[in-house]
Amino acid sequence: MVRVALISDLHFDVNRVDPAQIITQQVAYLKRQRVGLYLIAGDLSNHFDQSVRIAQALQTQLAPAQVRFIAGNHDMLHDVSAAALETPLTPTYLHNQFLDVAGTNWRIIGNNGWYDYGFADNLVGRNFQAWKNAFWVDSSIPQDLSDPQRFERVYGQLTAQLAQAQAAQKQVLVMTHFVPRREYIVYTQDNRFWNMANAVMGSPRLGQLFAQYQVPVVVFGHMHRHYWPQHLSNTWYYNQALGYHNHRLNEWESGDFMTEWRRRLRILTLT
């Protein structure tokens, strides 16, 4: 039996908190909760090097418990290439890797994920690439493929990982950053900004893939709205995004990072 803590979208730099102080406080809380594995589903910061340092510091202080993270779109903005993101850069980085949880039959599969514009299929004849380049933060992310091609790589990676887990008769928890189900997408009756932004939220094909392989648990981030866990097509979906709290945008229910982190943290017991 292992207790697993889930969180995403910590945005240390946007939220202007001291990582060293917050790491110490998180570790103390996770130890009190007897957590054996801490999973962060992307967007630790806007610089990949900083995100790695945060994860490594958490791992050092939380040991013997384990820490794993994947990269969200914000982690990809600086200090890392598209090619490097596809490699095992550090033991705490779980993209296209898996971790078998000792003492259980569970396997954690990590994949950064991406998008294929599939959630914006209500809009016809739109140039989503041009819109992204003009209005979306991801326009500065180094990229060697088109968005649909990049998603196809993600889809292939996850398909292979899930097939291997099925062959090994493992229970699976998938950690990805982008949205896998249409139930989390908000549509409006006009052509406002967010109808176009739905194109870069993720892909409904991932939810279909998870249903095909009967994945029991999926944790993701990217959307900063606060959701209760949802049971969809026999899969439990957890979006535990912390989100932003600054002078322009407040997505928190409290005014304190650690208070909000404890509110958003989800702890599961894997047996």
Give the topology, please.
Elements: E1 2-7, H1 19-32, E2 37-40, H2 48-62, E3 66-69, H3 82-85, E4 97-100, E5 106-111, H4 128-135, H5 147-167, E6 171-176, H6 193-197, H7 204-212, E7 217-220, E8 230-232, E9 235-239, H8 257-264, E10 266-270
Parallel strand pairs: 1-2, 2-3, 5-6, 6-7, 7-9
Antiparallel strand pairs: 1-10, 4-5, 8-9
Description of the molecule:
The chain is α/β, with parallel strands linked by helices. It has one domain (2-270): Purple Acid Phosphatase, chain A, domain 2 (4-Layer Sandwich), CATH 3.60.21.10. The chain is built from 8 helices and 10 strands. The chain has helices at 19-32, 48-62, 82-85, 128-135, 147-167, 193-197, 204-212, 257-264, and strands at residues 2-7, 37-40, 66-69, 97-100, 106-111, 171-176, 217-220, 230-232, 235-239, 266-270. Strand 8 and strand 9 (235-239) form a beta hairpin. The radius of gyration is 18 Å and the shape is globular. This is Phosphoesterase. Residues 3-225 form the Calcineurin-like phosphoesterase domain. One of its GO terms (molecular function) is hydrolase activity.
Features:
271 residues, alpha/beta, Purple Acid Phosphatase, chain A, domain 2, 6-stranded mixed sheet, 4-stranded mixed sheet, 8 helices, 10 strands, 31% helix, globular
Shape descriptor reads: globular
Task: Please provide the count of β strands.
Answer: 10
Question: Measured on Cα atoms, how large is the radius of gyration?
Answer: 18 Å
- Per CATH, the superfamily is Metallo-dependent phosphatases
Task: Give the strand content.
Answer: 15-25%
Main sheet summary: 6 strands, mixed
Unreliable stretches covering 5 or more consecutive residues: none
Overall pLDDT metric:
96
Order of helical and strand elements: EHEHEHEEHHEHHEEEHE
Question: Strand pairing plus helix content: what structural class?
Answer: alpha/beta
Strand order of the largest sheet: 4-5-6-7-9-8
CATH topology description: Purple Acid Phosphatase, chain A, domain 2
Number of domains: 1
The CATH top-level class label: Alpha Beta
Distance between the termini: 4 Å
Tell me the helix content.
Answer: 25-40%
CATH architecture: 4-Layer Sandwich
